[in-house]
Amino acid sequence: MSVPTLAADQSVCAPLPVLGRDVSVPLVTGGTVTYAALDYAASAPALQRVWDDVAAYAPYYGSVHRGAGYLSQLSTDLFENARKTVAAFLDCREEDQVVFTRSTTDSLNLLAAALPADCQVFVFETEHHASLLPWRDARVTVLDAPRTPQQAVGTLERALADRDPHGPALVCVTGASNVTGELWPVRELAEAAHAHGARVVLDAAQLAPHHPVSVRDLGVDWVAFSGHKLYAPFGSGVLAGRADWLRAAEPYLAGGGASRRVTRRTDGGVDVDWHESAARHEAGSPNVIGAYSIASACKSLTEAGFDTLVAREQYLVRRVREGLAGIPEVKVLSLFGDDAPRVGVLSFVVEGWNSSHFAAALSAEYGIGVRDGLFCAHPLVRTLLGGDPGTQGECGAPEAAPGERSLNAIRVSFGAGTPDEHVERFVRAVGELVRDGARWTYRTEDGRCVPAV
């Protein structure tokens, strides 16, 4: 996956309009400032166009697949057209299915429930918990964190060569790390997997909002992502890809919509004929607004042009990296090295600072929202920080008081809606905090570092 680049002083387009871009927040030092949302990797703000599209549809809201009335038929058409829009956005194959879910986590748990008997799963310890943990009923091989893309491919090839060649196998891999933002060699990993008779599911939660994703070009069997990272509201997600395992599996949820025909038996039980389409795993009244919002986001990003969006984001990435590189006390975390291509996600630690304390100061004194903790990727963060990957810890919770070292990190993330000023303010704030220290006193309350009052 190539990444377009810009000159260091050139920005090619304005940020896309997003909700919350004019929200003001109070500072502990007095006054207010426009909030700098730099936590896109957790949840990106909804695009204004997505919100406008949903608002325009809301008066026509109706029951999907359930009614003969005009609004029901309109909503059904909108829901099914959203499926086609997502398939086009992902460049799916003709025979692929698009299943609407609640999130990436839900999508991967759905696939886990559909695995054939005795399936073996291969996953790197570097994965987000959404793709590391769902495979509880399978034989799981967790692979060590690689230090180069080539090592990732070689590690997978050796592990697959040692497996039972006759049983089903699945490789789960991220497209872009939610901790380091680094792009993974997805196409090469997929080729290695297929050469050994294994299938591949791509966790594209951090990739799809920042970079075009083509199921055909990457050669993956499935792709999963979340709407709330793709500039759509919470509560919607996608699992798209091959239909055979999904058709053969029991429905993810049993209920109306998944069933095509239900009949009583003479013994008092019921016989069920389940759908073989995506509806098989979409029981209940579907989240039509969620599906529509994802489709609207897909259209918005496609029409804005990924070449332009990626190029502008790389300008912001370069500005952050150059700014942090000029502060000796800051260490940016990386698996593949400083020159590795990445999306707008960077994690770092600051010498002499507890990460939660630093993040709290950025928020309270500068109006900048970042994330601190282990980012639901505990083994990876522990490895990057030189700790034991098996050490226990809590997502987002500090383990030390302000000023004390902790095995947590700080993450800054941004995307299509980020103004240049937010990035400039962030770089300036990091430098000032390191040089001058916090201007306020902080304490730990309910596991969080907060300003003392």
UniProtKB/TrEMBL annotation:
SUPFAM superfamilies: PLP-dependent transferases. Keywords: Aminotransferase, Pyridoxal phosphate, Transferase. This is Aminotransferase class V-fold PLP-dependent enzyme. Gene3D superfamilies: Aspartate Aminotransferase, domain 1, Type I PLP-dependent aspartate aminotransferase-like (Major domain). The lineage of its organism: Bacteria, Bacillati, Actinomycetota, Actinomycetes, Kitasatosporales. InterPro entries: Aminotrans_V_dom, PyrdxlP-dep_Trfase, PyrdxlP-dep_Trfase_major, PyrdxlP-dep_Trfase_small. It comes from Streptomyces gibsoniae. Pfam families: Aminotran_5. The keyword Disulfide bond does not apply.
